[in-house]
Every structure is written in C-alpha cells, then in structure tokens.
C-alpha cells in the first residue's frame, strides 16, 4: 500500500505534515505592481528559517499573507500542516507573530502591557499569568525595565517587548519580521541567542532579515527573495556546500587533470576547453598541485575560488547583501 493511500482523506500528506509553513504560488499584486510572485515556501518543522532579501523584495508582504493580514491575489498556504485561512481559529493560537509592533499602550509599563495582552488571550490560564509574563520579560532581558512606561522605552526595548508578547505562551511556530531591527549589538546578540534557544525547545522559527550574517549565525535553512520571487531555498549546509572552495586548473590537457582531481577525492569534477575544476572538500590545494606535477600534467595556471555564501546570493540576485551585524 502506498504511503499516500494510508493517509485518511482530509489529512495532510506526510511531506506536508513535516513542514511548519508551506505555500504554493503565493502571490500579491498592488495595482500593477507584483509584490510577491508565485512563492513556494517550504519551512521544515524545527528549523530556524531565514527569509532573506533586500528591502522591498516582498518579505513583509509574504509574511502578512501567511498570517492572514493581507489577502493573496493568488495561491494558498498551510501553517502547521493546516490549510489557511480555513483552520485559522485552531492554528493561530499556536503561532507567535511579530510583524508590525502590536498596539502597546504608551502610558502603561511593559509589564502592564503584557498583562493586557495576556488577559485578552482566551487560551492562556489567568492563574499562571504573573509567572508567564515575568518569564517572558526575563527572557528578552526586560526584567529590570518591566515597570517603565512603554513611551520611555528605546526602539530596542520596544522590539524586545514585542518579542516577549509573541512568547507569552509556548508556541509551535514563530513568524518574525526583522526581529533584530533597531537593536544595538548586545540586544541583537541576545535576541539571536533567544531564537536559537526557542528552536532548541522544538518550535519552528521563521524570521525575515536583510542580513546575510544573521542567517549565517542563527538559521538552519534559508529562502532568498529577490523582486518578489523566491530565487533559492535550501538547508544552509547545502548552500554552503555549493559555495564550497573549487580548484581550477588551467591546462591544455583538461581530461588528464580531471583524472588527477578525481583520484585525489575532489568532487563535482568538470572539464571545459582549457580547464578542469573540482570542489576541494578536505583536500589541501598544495596536494593538488603536487599531484598534477607528479602526473606530469602541464599546468598553465592554478587557482582556488571560494565564492562563499555572499557571492552565491549575489549571483542569484545580482544585488549585494548587508553583511554587517
Ligand atoms: N500596501 C501596499 N500598497 C502598495 N505597494 C505595496 C504595499 N505593501 C508593499 N508594497 C510594495 O511591495 C513591494 C514589496 O514590499 P515588502 O514590504 O513586502 O518588501 P520587504 O522585502 O519586506 O521590504 P522591507 O524590508 O523594506 O519591508 C515593495 O515594492 C513595496 O513598495
């Protein structure tokens, strides 16, 4: 019996069940402008998925569609395996979202603001409210500033309070739009550590960012947006491997050189008119040179190209990424 047939009607297919977010052809037009163009997201459960792209590439609009804050022009999606928006009532309480800061009251303290939000959550037990709110404030590093009025909070503190609001109750999925925006370096480090911790506890985290370094530091998976399109999506380790250092041998005898590269254990060995290339892996470049000499392959030039993730993404999008932070 096929796996597909063992699933009862109406159940999501097993592959879908393994995904925290899945979209098909998700699209949004604003008048003539296509802001999001047929995006197929696959966010594995338990991953920290970096939704990476320059400003204006469509990340926020995609996130707003995922959360049902804006209606797609075309396409659809599932969250935690459930078709949206049909199952919104059951699924949304399991999701924490940070999109545009929640409406915090300027004259109430951070603590009082969280109390209000918590009280409005019908799924939260009022008897454990104080412990829950205190823990959330501590986790985002606002314990000491809990009694301060929101209007006196810095941008970074506001961002942390918004984050605290998303983790008041345990969530299966966090969807965060630029969660480290406006934070100082220390705050940025703390929030990144917190996200890693939340993921280690079993939740899936989808965060948008324009910082490649953020993806490299916290994410297990990445989706790259460019002008409304998802131009790449893969586990980070896979992308790193495809951006791995490659040896390039300039020679009039490319097939002989390729043979040497293969024998040494280089992978993805390829030949062109006057060159042979291969991914070095753990083979040191000097060993390649020595082997070529030993095999008497006439070499005119030798180079190691290590494109790195940044170069790989730039080649995909034709645009640079902000690598600071
Ligand atoms: N409500 C709207 N009406 C018209 N155009 C919009 C609207 N919202 C977004 N856009 C346009 O859609 C495109 C994608 O914007 P979006 O905010 O989704 O990008 P982004 O990648 O999140 O960038 P940023 O980080 O600057 O928010 C932009 O060109 C933007 O101007």
From TrEMBL:
Keywords: ATP-binding, Nucleotide-binding, Transport
Domain ABC transporter: 21-252
Gene3D superfamilies assigned: P-loop containing nucleotide triphosphate hydrolases
Gene Ontology terms, MF aspect: ATP binding
One Pfam short name: ABC_tran
InterPro entries: AAA+_ATPase, ABC_transporter-like_ATP-bd, ABC_transporter-like_CS, P-loop_NTPase
Keyword Nucleotide-binding: yes
Family: Belongs to the ABC transporter superfamily.
Record-given protein name: ATP-binding cassette domain-containing protein
Provenance organism: Plantactinospora sonchi
């Amino acid at each position: 019996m096929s796996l597909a047939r063992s699933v009862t009607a109406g159940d999501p297919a097993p592959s879908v069940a393994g995904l925290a977010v899945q979209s098909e052809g998700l699209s949004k037009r604003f008048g003539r402008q296509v802001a999001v163009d047929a995006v197929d997201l696959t966010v594995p459960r338990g991953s920290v998925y970096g939704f990476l792209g320059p400003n204006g590439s469509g990340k926020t609009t995609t996130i707003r569609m995922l959360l049902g804050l804006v209606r797609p022009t075309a396409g659809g999606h599932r969250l935690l395996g459930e078709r949206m928006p049909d199952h919104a009532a059951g699924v949304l309480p399991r999701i924490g979202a940070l999109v545009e800061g929640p409406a915090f009251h300027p004259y109430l303290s951070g603590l009082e603001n969280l109390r209000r939000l918590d009280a409005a959550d019908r799924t939260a037990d009022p008897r454990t409210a104080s412990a829950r709110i205190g823990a959330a404030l501590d986790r985002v590093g606002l314990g000491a500033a809990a009694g301060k009025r929101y209007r006196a909070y810095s941008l970074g503190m506001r961002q942390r309070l918004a984050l605290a609001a998303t983790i008041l109750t345990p969530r299966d999925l966090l969807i965060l739009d630029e969660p480290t925006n406006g934070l100082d370096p220390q705050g940025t480090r703390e929030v990144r550590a917190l996200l890693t911790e939340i993921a280690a506890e079993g939740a899936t985290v989808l965060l948008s960012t324009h910082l490649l370094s953020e993806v490299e530091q916290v994410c297990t998976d990445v989706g790259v947006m460019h002008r409304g399109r998802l131009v790449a999506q893969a586990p980070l380790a896979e992308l790193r491997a495809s951006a791995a250092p490659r040896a390039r041998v300039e020679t009039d005898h490319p097939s002989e050189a390729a043979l040497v590269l293969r024998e040494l254990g280089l992978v993805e060995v390829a030949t062109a008119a006057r060159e042979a290339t291969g991914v070095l892996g753990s083979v040191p470049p000097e060993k390649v040179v020595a082997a070529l000499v030993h095999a008497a392959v006439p070499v005119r030039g030798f180079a190691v190209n290590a494109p790195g993730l940044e170069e790989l993404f730039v080649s995909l999008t034709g645009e640079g990424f902000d690598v600071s932070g």
